[in-house]
Write a structure and sequence with these properties.
Number of helices of chain B: 0
Order of helices and strands of chain A: EEEEEEEEE
Largest sheet of chain A: 5 strands, mixed
Strand order of the largest sheet of chain A: 1-9-8-3-4
Radius of gyration of chain A: 14 Å
Largest interface: A-B, 19 and 28 residues
Strand content of chain A: over 45%
Shape of chain B: globular
Distance between the termini of chain A: 39 Å
Structural class of chain B: mainly beta
Number of helices of chain A: 0
Number of strands of chain A: 9
Distance between the termini of chain B: 37 Å
Helix content of chain B: under 10%
Strand content of chain B: over 45%
Order of helices and strands of chain B: EEEEEEEEEEE
Helix content of chain A: under 10%
Shape of chain A: globular
Oligomer: heterodimer
Chain lengths: 112, 115
Amino acid sequence: LAKTTQPISMDSYEGQEVNITCSHNNIATNDYITWYQQFPSQGPRFIIQGYKTKVTNEVASLFIPADRKSSTLSLPRVSLSDTAVYYCLVGELPGSARQLTFGSGTQLTVLP
Amino acid sequence: EAGVVQSPRYKIIEKKQPVAFWCNPISGHNTLYWYLQNLGQGPELLIRYENEEAVDDSQLPKDRFSAERLKGVDSTLKIQPAELGDSAVYLCASSLGRVGQETQYFGPGTRLLVL
């Protein structure tokens, strides 16, 4: 399974853009990159997924360089409610024996 | 649309007692997952179902854990007997299970405390 490495924690202030980088050096050709968000006492929630280049949705952007050995989740203008743990996952889509594996995640704390 | 439902939300038991967790996935989702999450760590997959078939249970401690998904809808995860180290949050998730629609939707989890 492709292993991911993320910073343990990050602090930011309201209104700032936050970039969380994930390293996945042994990503395989068929692997996708997925980010989840988890608030205390809740299950993780899907944020964004991508394979290469850039993906953007209403919540975040995901930047993936050409070598795909890392990815960066970008949260524009964070608010206090964005304080959560963010997980980067690498894995194949269903139909394969490989599974998505959660790491320890990045605890993002947004300060007023 | 209702999300993934889990019950109970909290459970406190003494060691060596049995315990069961129930999960109702989102309607129409063929794939169901059970995860274990320890404090400060990410979820760890225990078992994955495609309809009623357990297609990946390699991480399930089969000496004390069991799971079933009768009729390919609801699922139950059981621990018998529970040990102190089983204290954790047990998460259930579901997905459509089709290529391009594999987003996992998680329930709120069941927090288990074994005394």
